[in-house]
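Final report, closing paragraph on structural work. Over the funding period we assembled a curated collection of sequence-structure pairs, and we close with a single example.
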Amino acid sequence: MLDIANQSPDPVTLTVARRSRPGSAGTGPIGAGASTQLSVEVSPGTYEIGATPRRATGGSHPLPGAVLRVGTARPSGDNVLLRP
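Its predicted structure, as stored:
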């Protein structure tokens, strides 16, 4: 689950896509100053996150994106005492 906050003055649409596979998940327009959640099932791999603002003037252009790398699952730490 991703919590997304739009801190810009314009509505924004967010997408999450895996580099090695077609398809993506995304949001509808997120209003200025609003927040939303996006549920995405991920497996190990590299994902690209992108945002496109919807300007009041009608123009839009993608913002610089980010890369998310998901590794393999870590061993559980349940019931394990961690010592300094």
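The first strand starts at residue 2 and ends at 5. The two ends are 31 Å apart (CA to CA). We thank the funder for supporting this effort.
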